[in-house]
Amino acid sequence: MVAYLPISEERLSTIRSATQTERTLQTLCDTIQKGWPKHKKDTPRDIMHYYSFQEELSVQDGIIFRGERAVIPYALQRDIIRRIHSSHLGVESCLRRARECVYWPGMNEQIKTFIVKCDICRSVDTKQQKETLRPHEVEGRPWAKVGTDLFTFDDKNYLITVDYYSNFWEVDYLPDTKSSTVIRKLKAHFARQGVPFILFSDNGPQYTSQEFRRFSQLWEFKHKTSSPGYPQSNGKAESAVKVAKKLMLKAKAAGQDPYLAMLDHRNTPTQGLNTSPAQRLLSRRTRTLLPTRDSLLKPEVKDTTPEQVDRQEKQAKYYNRTAKDMDMLRQGDRVRVQPFEPHTTWRKATVMQPVDHRSYTVQLDDGGLLRRNRRHLRRDQGTVPGVTARTVTFDAHAAPDAVVTPDRVTTDTQQSVTSKSGRPIVEPKYLQDYVH
């Protein structure tokens, strides 16, 4: 077994020497050679963990084996973990490597904890999973909530303004992208349709300027912005941009007037609502090039709020099948921030304050302040709110025969620890014996 173990002779000699100097493993070695007690309660306390798999244990050339795996003394465990993770492979890959040749009580948890706290691995983490859909509330009337965004088509800048209730959007050409130009276009729409209660936009410089802030104060509407790097929260405007650009591209390819395409789109009934954007905003159809009876052009108010709520619920039902909510962050929590260009590594930061349910202001360790969505913030060192992760403290000055006992899992409250799916987590009995 020693000859076929995938460990160098020098390392085997070190393991052999450390095994001879560790009291716990010497007790285990003597018990293996002399025979195990009939009852577990008669087993020495410091080796009680090994009782349940005593048939797998053997001693070969001064090294204790569990099957074909060498039992590593406490003094060498930290070094072995570092060697296992020397190439910075993932948790499962490192566990597979370790399970081939080494063993000690609590090995899996120690390796997981070590990798979770590895600064290099955490700085190049993958993106986090998507969270459940949180759609904007359906407004009870048209033009109560409006979204806006800028886009480019044929090297020209345009402003799109969309009503959240009716999905009716307007496109304006922008000779430049100054805040004053954007404000002038929005004033024209507000003068026709009225001032909305809420205007939603991204964090472009046109919307974060002092001039736009004064505009929102003078015209008495609330200006809300999406999290940087998370355009999904301004999805209504983003979706309108896609539709508008596609219509303009097709009209250009066909040599047709893009405004006629917009007119037809505004008078096309929306799937699942049976009313067009023009009907929901203007309470009437508008005349197109299709022959239309005068009676169909007469004003008629239709409330589509129930249909829109039902549509949102169906959309969320399908979207949430592959999504899961993450826990909320608190002031002072340590996190890592997902990199946006030109950055390439996750940077450490501290949560300063929440902006809304899923948006936070964080301060980088270098002093910079950022606003980020929860999806772009990963808890540092794998901590979970209310739970202290099971860890093993490595003390360089500890005696070689010290007994390794992981800290007990504790919570800030008396509630039981649950899994991701909500099921209670109960420690196996052999771990309870080992911890206590």
From TrEMBL:
Q: Name one GO biological process term.
A: DNA integration
Chain intervals for the UniProt region annotation (Disordered): 405-424
Q: Where is the composition biased (Polar residues)?
A: 411-421
Write one Gene Ontology MF term. Answer: nucleic acid binding
| Stored SUPFAM superfamilies | Ribonuclease H-like
Enumerate the Gene3D superfamilies for this protein: 1.10.340.70, Ribonuclease H-like superfamily/Ribonuclease H
The Integrase catalytic domain sits at 131-314
Q: This chain belongs to which protein, by name?
A: Gypsy retrotransposon integrase-like protein 1
Q: Which species is this record about?
A: Merluccius polli
